[in-house]
Design a protein that fits this description.
The protein is mainly alpha-helical. The protein has seven helices and two strands.
């Protein structure tokens, strides 16, 4: 199913997405890929992950279109794993998750922070609506049944209505 998350009988998009990236090694491998790691030995050394687990996760990431496997050497064959556009689109999710993790720590306990490349100033990411620029807080933004929702999903969100601003 090229270009699509395999739903595996899951109607909820959160459940479907977690089926692809919910295993914690997967997110750590993606984080390393965002930092420029591409080769098996780089991932293995940095993450201290067993070769069998890493092999399995790289196959899953490749099968789901998040990484592309390319040969960079023959005899013996060696491959690198490059982020695809689909893989790069997960960066804001990983950044937001890391920021949430940091928010649970005192500043002196943080081993990694997000900074502005130009100024070096630490930044605090927020998730916003693209159209309005407003933070996606629960007072203003809620989930509702979509066009493909089952009766169960429609029942879950039956009480959700839009309200006029102000």
């Amino acid at each position: 199913m090229a270009g699509k998350i395999r739903l595996e009988d899951r109607e909820c998009p959160l459940s479907a997405a977690l089926g692809v990236v919910g295993e914690w090694w997967t997110l750590l491998i993606l984080h390393d890929a965002f930092d420029g790691y591409t080769r098996f030995d780089q991932f293995q050394e940095n993450l201290r992950i067993s070769s069998s687990i890493l092999t399995s996760r790289l196959k899953t990431l490749t099968a789901n279109g998040l990484l592309e496997r390319r040969r960079y050497q023959s005899q013996p064959d060696r491959y690198e794993y490059l982020l695809t556009d689909r893989g790069r689109s997960l960066r804001p999710v990983v950044v937001a998750l890391a920021a949430w993790g940091n928010s649970q720590l005192r500043p002196e306990q943080r081993s990694m922070i997000l900074i502005d490349r130009e100024t070096g100033a630490e930044v605090e990411p927020v998730v916003v609506d693209r159209a309005s620029g407003r933070p996606l807080d629960p007072e203003n933004f809620v989930f509702a049944a979509g066009p493909a929702a089952s009766e169960t999903m429609r029942a879950r969100y039956a009480g959700v209505t839009s309200r006029p601003p102000g």
